[in-house]
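2024-03-11 09:14:02 DEBUG pipeline.ingest accepted 1 chain
2024-03-11 09:14:02 DEBUG pipeline.ingest length=150
2024-03-11 09:14:03 DEBUG pipeline.predict start
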Amino acid sequence: MAALQHVRPHAREHFSIVEMAYVLLTAGIFSAWQQQALNIKPRYFAWFIVVVAVPLISLGADALAHMLLDHVNAHALGLSALALTLVSAMFHWHVMENGALLIGEGSRPLLSDFKQMPGLLSSFVTSPVRWLRNLSPANPIEETDFEAAA
């Protein structure tokens, strides 16, 4: 919204309507592609598809829709949208890897998934620390340190 503050209110409203329509029409498709990618081997390739490829395709199509339908100079949105999209996709990967927000076989009730969200968010935020800890066994951090932080 800050990137569009210099734009006329009518243009901002149009931009918002295009964005809402795009998300409503495509979110299920891109999410299905991400869930299907969980079955791809090797895991790093599945991660690349879920966290990089699908979000960049989605963001690119979104940008194309705005270029065609909006006449707004929204270049400032590009980098922030890219950063937020990639972090969101990493969280989506983390959630799906832990069995939440999946549909079809092996899925759980949505309320059960929502109840898991605080723990999943905590484990997502602390995962870089755990990853670094695994790289450096010389200075181990106790698991209770993470529990105290959560």
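2024-03-11 09:14:41 DEBUG pipeline.report The chain has a mean pLDDT of 81.
2024-03-11 09:14:41 DEBUG pipeline.predict end
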